[in-house]
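Work Package 3 (structural annotation) set out to generate three-dimensional models for the target panel prioritized at the project kickoff. During this period the team completed the workflow that converts sequence records into discrete structure tokens, so that structures can be stored uniformly alongside our sequence database. As a representative example, we reproduce one entry of 70 residues exactly as it appears in the project archive.
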Amino acid sequence: MKKLISINKMAEQMGLTSRTLRYWESEHLFTSNRDVESGWRTYDEHAILCIQITAFLRKMDVPIKEIKSV
């Protein structure tokens, strides 16, 4: 079974806000799944890796436009 993590838990673990994660997703840096019952965004292992890479690159002040090419 795939490991899924909720947007709130992901934001907390990464020291980000859920708003940041929603923005990055709107920029097509990764995609989320939706929990059927709650409608909340959940992230699988691939999305988690993309979020970690994005967070690392943003800490280095790499613009989102350039991150998209990675």
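The two ends are 28 Å apart (CA to CA).
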